[in-house]
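Hi R.,

Here's the chain you asked about this morning:
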Amino acid sequence: MERRAFLAGVTTGLAGTAGCLVGYRGGDGSEEPTTEYPGIAEYGYPGTICEEERRPDAIPAIDDPAFGANWDGADLPEAYRPGGLTDDRVVLGVSRDGAAHAYPLAVLARHEVVNDTLGDPLLVTYCPICRSGLVASRELDGEVATFGVTGLLWKPPDAYAAASEADGTVVGASESDPDASVRDSGNLVMYDEPTGSRWSQVLAEAICGPRTGESLEIRPSTVTTWGQWRSGHPDTGVLLPPPLSGTLDPAERVG
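And the predicted structure, written out as tokens:
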């Protein structure tokens, strides 16, 4: 389902469905939400997500990220000039192997997926509708994958989305509030270039295609302000917005 056609009334019928999808973990009889369920795609909204025609790269993912010490002196696109990169801007921060990168939500909200390398191939994602951020490895079965945006939205069953936030798979944030909670709504659906499988961002799981049921390997991340992140990581690089960073849309590339 395309974003413009996604209706607010998506919860109709899902409350009862979600209860049927709760799985069992372990042998103690306790019932906990789990995303390991074949055919989960049809129990979300829309249930036809695997048949929906995707609009690849209508929202161009970043696949050639560029970083600077800050945005000072950078030739920023008009969309980023009014506020620039002030200390109160919200960022998603990642620190690995002694290096650190900050990803401003102002950029992530417009591109949603960043294919980066920091210690190992890294996938940085943000769904502005759900206010959900996720960082994971881009390695699938030992191969490095490039991820893009399908242009589709899919709302997982409520129990699964709640479990994903509770166990730290995704973090909540908005462009103005690093403490915002994840919103219960239609969520970013990504695809991987090797197979075209579709991935639910909030579940970190493939819901359609050859990789259905596989999960991404989550990497630790921090939601904070640019000022606080830079104070704790003085040598950090910060993501520069396209066209300073390259995207899967050739029209936005430089050179």
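Residues 3-249 form one domain.

Let me know if you need anything else.
M.
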